[in-house]
Design brief:
This protein is α/β, with parallel strands linked by helices. The chain folds into two domains: 154 residues, Rossmann fold (3-Layer(aba) Sandwich); 141 residues, NAD(P)-binding Rossmann-like Domain (Rossmann fold, 3-Layer(aba) Sandwich), CATH 3.40.50. Helix content is 38%, strand content 18%. The protein is built from eleven helices and twelve strands. The strands form two sheets. The protein has a six-stranded mixed beta sheet, sandwiched between helices. It has a six-stranded parallel beta sheet with strand order 9-8-7-10-11-12, sandwiched between helices. Helix 1 packs across helix 10 and helix 5 crosses helix 6. 51% of the residues are buried.
Amino acid sequence: MAPVVDARLVRTGLIGAGIGPSLSPALHEREARALGLSYRYTRFDLDELGAAPADVGAVLARARADGLRGVNVTHPVKQHVLPHLDALSTDAAAIGAVNTVVFDGGRAVGHNTDWSGFAAALEAGLPGAAHGDVALLGAGGAGAAAAHALLTGGARVVHVLDVDHDRAHTLAARLAATFGAGRATAVAIDAVGDVLTRADGLVHATPTGMAEHPGLPVPPAVLHPRLWVAEIVYRPLHTELLRVASGVGARTLDGGLMAVHQAADALHLFTGRHPDTARMRRHLAELVADTAPTTEPTTEPREDPRAG
């Protein structure tokens, strides 16, 4: 006898490596229940499957064949997945990375909700903040999405800094090609103090500050009260960088709002419903408080920004 399938069940999931501790399943499923949906979010962990990042096409095909509505995609396959998609949203194509795939009829369509999630978080968490010159520390996938959001939102110029200067240069060139010459520059990491002296804001998109990567990504002396500071890390919500920045009088934004808004945007793509982001923010705070620190990627479905 064939198994009974609940036609009302919305099935989604997450593809990535080392995603066992991810909060995405609980965050999605809690909000879906609040919306009155029957919803299941499944992990496809490459480590557990014995699969390499290059095998993401086969994992994606499996999820599609299993009848999932779509999947989130995280480290280390946000770029590896691109050749296996039938179409990209305009923003995903510009960023060059995908974190959400929707199975639309016979097509697999890639989206990037990291950038929209960061844009919404910045608007909600730092209203009225000046976006003239912004320093971006970390040129991986999360940094690229944040830079796209900043320049889309009207920032004059984004100064990209990374320990890998070639990576910073590549991202700055990509941003300039999309938004225009002079809108993005690559800056040597040892010049961070000079950049922050004239910057309106700092976006931090590296793993420094996570439980397994403690510390500050910049010297405390370069932080000042005219600066706003936005984190990508959300576990913990209150990083050392935010503590020190707040201590000198800078406005701060933790990574939780981005995590919530990117998840809400993905949930909307999967279901057509409009999640309650305030409720999801409460859910996330509870989930973070209830879980021990881990070495998972900075957020889901975002990856270690240095892995790009």
